[in-house]
Amino acid sequence: MKYLKIENNKGLFRKKSNQWVELDQICKEDILSLLDKAIEDEFEMDEFDADLLQNKAHQIIYTHLYQKFNELITSRSRFKDESEQLYKNAIEKYTEIIKNGGNKKKNGTQKRSKNKSGTYKPQAKKPTIKISK
Fold first, then answer.
1. Domain of 18, in residue numbers
2. Within 13 A of 21's CA, how many CA atoms are on the CB side?
3. Average pLDDT over all residues of the chain
4. Is the pLDDT reported for residue 105 higher than 60?
């Protein structure tokens, strides 16, 4: 599906509602929506042609969007693999923590243990030595 196009000397983008809007009206949410579509769907766009765009603002915006989306589309599989690996590592980490009953062993420190009532035992205080004269 086409999400960026040049028509009547203007750059246009497709909103979620499938209506075409001029590029100078684009906002952060629109760009995020387009990013989602570029990652998940078949994302098509007209190739940039400065002769077809008379509005300088549209030229600048279209050029940058076209370049960035083109880069994303060409590296989409690598991006998806990296994202999935990131989430996989996080899920494995937290699954392990849950299996250990919420106790996380970190840097060789001992796990805190629970008492019979299911609450954690208070940490032992370090002994203090007083020297009197």
1. 2-76
2. 14
3. 82
4. no
